[in-house]
Design brief:
Elements (H helix, E strand, L loop, with lengths): L1 E6 L5 H13 L3 E6 L9 H8 L15 H8 L2 E7 L1 H8 L6 H8 L4 E5 L3 H5 L1 H12 L3 E2 L3 E4 L5 E5 L3 H18 L18 E6 L4 E2 L5 E2 L6 H12 L3 E6 L8 E5 L3 H11 L5 E4 L6 E3 L28 E3 L3 H9 L6 E8 L7 H12 L3 E6 L10 E8 L5 E8 H13 L3
Parallel strand pairs: 1-2, 1-3, 3-4, 4-5, 8-11, 8-13, 11-12, 13-16, 16-17
Antiparallel strand pairs: 6-7, 9-10, 14-15, 17-18, 18-19
Helix pairs in contact: 1-2, 1-8, 3-5, 4-7, 9-13
GO molecular function: FMN binding; metal ion binding; phosphopantothenate--cysteine ligase activity; phosphopantothenoylcysteine decarboxylase activity
Catalytic activity: (R)-4'-phosphopantothenate + L-cysteine + CTP = N-[(R)-4-phosphopantothenoyl]-L-cysteine + CMP + diphosphate + H(+); N-[(R)-4-phosphopantothenoyl]-L-cysteine + H(+) = (R)-4'-phosphopantetheine + CO2
Keywords: Decarboxylase, Flavoprotein, FMN, Ligase, Lyase, Magnesium, Metal-binding, Multifunctional enzyme
Length: 420
């Protein structure tokens, strides 16, 4: 496949060398288009040696080949890594003042931008507005990682690792082959199979407060739900993410919650006008019956006989609502929204993980159930996942993994799309 690798002028440009090598070793025909500023960080000889092709930043080079039009028209994928704040601004406003921005304007293939910059620049309202504009046009903006930046700075704005960006590229190329993303009219965004759909995703565990300091919770990190939201946005959906975590996901409307009751209210409100509901959150089954307005103290008083008081409070629990079952009941006999449930299961003497999953699918009445085994060192907090995707009314089961949660997300959306 023909890939254009754009490189903007940021210190993270050195990481693009590894991405170039991964793409080339996978057999892709890669053309590197750096900006003039990018060459301040990594020189043209490096890009030429790694790609095996001459490198140019200027629309006036090799004019007879019309590179400012040809590269974008012929590409199967354009990825810009790093995409600086300046590059995002120029792309969002349709500027064409160098070869790379010309390529972005002429591309009729999937476009991926991987921002990298200081946290203050990433958080600025102008940058976020530019990201929102690009996302609405169908550009896949990969959220920056959080970590060490230039100097001593730490925070959101770090370029994701080359292996992660390579995985994004491969998913986009596979989707392009499947859905013929290049068959679009001039000026329109690449075809996305969730375009025009409103998707609501829940993610993360809930926290049920016991007092101002303590709460009952679980090990869920929210990573799978967040990956589902990112994948849906990349496929063209308008996404509402209801989560207990604090993600930074461009192009996704985030609603923050903590408790199961807050999650319930937010999901019912968001699901009122959506096409798909994905209940990936790990909702606490129980919550404390009463909330102590002040911290519950340990007592150190001695009993009359002089012995220490080692007693502990007894916590009464009450059951939380079954949000998934409520959403199914609320839908009634309507065809939409399509409802996807998650079953975090452990096998026991009554059955295997898959046995419990099939029983839950029948009991809940949702359209799709994603079943995964959980436990120490499994799923929670990990970057990989292994799942089985079940459909109501079908004995077929889609096995996915071990794979990244991004790959799992695309597999889930493939099943959902087949139900429309």
């Amino acid at each position: 496949m023909r890939v254009v690798l754009g490189v903007a002028g940021g210190i993270a440009a050195y990481k693009a060398c590894s991405l170039l090598r991964l793409l080339a070793e996978a057999g892709h025909d890669v053309t590197v288009v750096p900006t003039a500023a990018a060459l301040k960080f990594v020189g043209a000889p490096t890009w030429a040696a790694l790609s095996g092709k001459p490198v140019s930043t200027d629309v006036w080079d090799n004019v007879h080949e019309v590179p400012h039009v040809r590269l974008g028209q012929e590409a199967d994928l354009v990825i810009v890594a790093p995409a600086t704040a300046d590059l995002l601004a120029r792309a969002a406003t349709g500027q064409a003042d160098d070869l790379l921005t010309n390529v972005l304007l002429t591309a009729r293939c999937p476009v991926v931008l991987a921002p990298a910059m200081h946290t203050e620049m990433w958080d600025h309202a102008a940058t976020q507005a530019n990201v929102a504009t690009l996302t609405e046009r169908g550009v896949h903006v990969v959220p920056p990682a959080s970590g060490r930046l230039t100097g001593k700075d730490t925070g959101p704005g770090r370029l994701p690792e080359p292996e992660e960006l390579y995985a994004v590229c491969e998913r986009e190329l596979a989707r392009s082959r499947s859905h013929d993303a290049r068959a679009t009219t001039a000026g329109s965004a690449p075809t996305r199979d969730l375009t025009g759909r409103h998707v609501v995703v829940s993610a993360g565990g809930t926290r049920e407060p016991l007092d101002p300091v303590r709460y009952l919770g679980n090990r869920s990190s929210g990573k799978q739900g967040h990956a589902l939201a990112v994948a849906a946005a990349a496929r063209g959906a308008r996404v509402t993410l209801v989560t207990s975590a604090k993600p930074d996901l461009p192009g996704v409307d985030v609603v923050h919650i903590e408790t199961a009751l807050q999650l319930r209210d937010a999901m019912h409100a968001a699901a009122a006008d959506c096409d798909v509901v994905v209940m990936a959150a790990a909702v606490a089954d129980f919550r404390p019956a009463t909330y102590a307005p002040t911290k519950i103290k340990k007592t150190h008083e001695s009993r009359p006989d002089g012995s220490a008081d080692e007693s502990a409070p007894t916590i009464e629990l009450v059951r939380n609502p079954d949000i998934l079952a409520e959403l199914v009941a609320r839908r009634g006999g309507a065809a939409t929204p399509i409802i996807v449930g998650f079953a975090a299961e452990t096998g026991d003497e009554d059955g295997s993980v898959l046995d419990h999953g099939r029983a839950k699918l029948e009991r809940k009445g949702c359209d799709v159930l994603v079943v995964n085994e959980v436990g120490e060192g499994k799923t929670f907090g990990a970057d990989d996942n292994t799942v089985t995707v079940l459909r109501r009314g079908s004995d077929a089961a889609v096995e996915v993994g071990p794979a990244t949660k991004a790959v799992v997300s695309d597999a889930v959306w493939d099943v959902v799309v087949s139900l429309f």
